[in-house]
Amino acid sequence: MSISRLAAGILVVPLIFAACGRGTSPAPEQATTAAAPNSQVLMQLRSDWQAQKDTMMKIADAMPENKFGYKSTPAQRNYGEQIMHVASSNVELLKVLGGNAAAPAFTAESAKTKADILKALGDSYDYGTALMNELSETTVLEQVKDSPSFLGPSSRARILWTLLAHSMDIYGQMAVYLRLNGIVPPASRGV
Question: Cα dihedral angle (109, 110, 113, 118), rounded to 10 degrees?
């Protein structure tokens, strides 16, 4: 992610929370500029979602299939389970958005091979893309009816941000798994 994209995202988040009824209202002198970033929320979410899909697919593919059972300690998920955790979490939380797109039908038990696991991960991101394509700049900021209790009242945008953040948490764990196996994560190669 470029520094300018990161900075733009950091600047937009407080405005989005204000637009969603969370946080404080912008100061009067900011009120006239608050509408401009909001008109780009869905576009930025789509862009970040696609970028994250690319990143997660590359890191998932970086581990050889014979190491998908690797875990850093006995209490941890193994590498394949980490990927399936992202895929399953994506699908379950995306269902809260509503929409007409059909959710992928995989389960943790149905994805056994590396190819199955990578397909499930890709399908989970494609499902999110399909749902976002059904949204407008207005509906992405609307509250969902069945927001999970751990989030409390949330807009569709907040659900998507939560999934983006969650996947990056798991990405960090996956990067450690790769390094413990002598593999440089794809995003760190050539840096």
Answer: -110
d(C-alpha 21, C-alpha 36), whole Å: 17
Residues 56 and 92 in one domain: yes
Instruction: Write down the pLDDT at residue 109.
Output: 87
Distance CA 148, CA 159 (A): 9
Could you tell me if 111 and 18 lie in one domain?
no
Task: Indicate the length of the chain as a whole number.
Answer: 191
Which CATH number characterizes residue 112's domain? Answer: 1.20.120.450
Evaluate if pTM is beyond 0.90. no
User: Are 25 and 109 in a shared domain?
Assistant: no
**115-128: b (≥16 Cβ within 10 Å) or e:** eebbebbbbbbebb
Number of domains into which the chain is organized: 2
Q: What is the residue range of 129's domain?
A: 40-188
Contacts of 134 (CB under 8 A, 6+ apart): 99, 100, 101
Asked whether the predicted pLDDT for residue 40 surpasses 50, the reply is: yes
Residue with tokens 């990161």: 6
Q: What is the pLDDT of residue 191?
A: 59
